[in-house]
Each structure stands twice: as C-alpha cells, then as structure tokens.
Amino acid sequence: MGLIRRGKEFKRSLIVRVRDETGHRMDVLDVKPKSLRATLETTKVPGAYRLTLVVPADSQVEMFSREEQHGYVQVGDPENQAFHNWLPLYGAIVNPADESLASPEFVSLETILKFKNRC
Questions:
Q1: Which of 95, 97, 4 minimizes the C-alpha distance to 53?
Q2: Which of 3, 33, 56, 85 could make an SS bond with 106 (beta carbons 3.0 to 4.6 A apart)?
Q3: 53 or 98, greater pLDDT
Q4: What is the structure's pLDDT at 119?
Q5: Is 15 helix (H, G, I), strand (E, B) or coil?
Q6: Residue 112 has pLDDT above 80, yes or no
Q7: Any residues with CB less than 8 A from the CB of 40 and at least 6 apart, and which?
C-alpha cells in the first residue's frame, strides 16, 4: 500500500479471483491493521470479486511495513474455515509533516526530489 498520509481518505481496489465454481460464499474474514476497512463485491465476471481497501482520514499513525509486522486481508467462505486465503499488506500511515521521517522504502519520489533540491 505504501506511504499513506493521514487526514485524507485513501482507497484502493483490486480484483481477486476464485479459480473454479465452488459454490462458496466469499467475504472479508479479517483485516489488519484494524483501522483499515475492507469490502468484497461481486463483478460481472464469474469468480471475480472487487476487494476495496479503505484507510479512513482519521486513522492513527501506524507502521505495517516489516516482514514481522505487516498487515493483511483474509478473504474466504465464512461458513467453511478451510476455504480462505490472505493477501499481505505493507505500508505506513503517517502524519503529513512526518513524511520525510518515514521508512526509506516508502518515501515517495516527490519527497526525495524535494529533499534533494533543498541540499
């Protein structure tokens, strides 16, 4: 997900697929960090779903950018615990003023260029 500034809602959607017709009902089972919201909607294509991730504008500062401390979204059939999968999420929610202090792998190119021009 990258570097996400607080104060403005951040929304990202992607397509997830079920490879065969299983008859399972698909839903979001879990999401971490808990400040994220995730929804799963059907699409016109059978077996394809739109997963939408939302970071609310009032989210707290949070890092989920390390291998041992990453976020995730788990999707699957709520009635069948064996039928699920999860997508790891890496990113950070930061205050706009703290952007230059964020982990280097999540600093935007725009910030790097601003910093370079100051030197």
A1: 4
A2: 3
A3: 53
A4: 42
A5: strand
A6: no
A7: 16, 26, 27, 28, 49, 50, 51, 52, 75
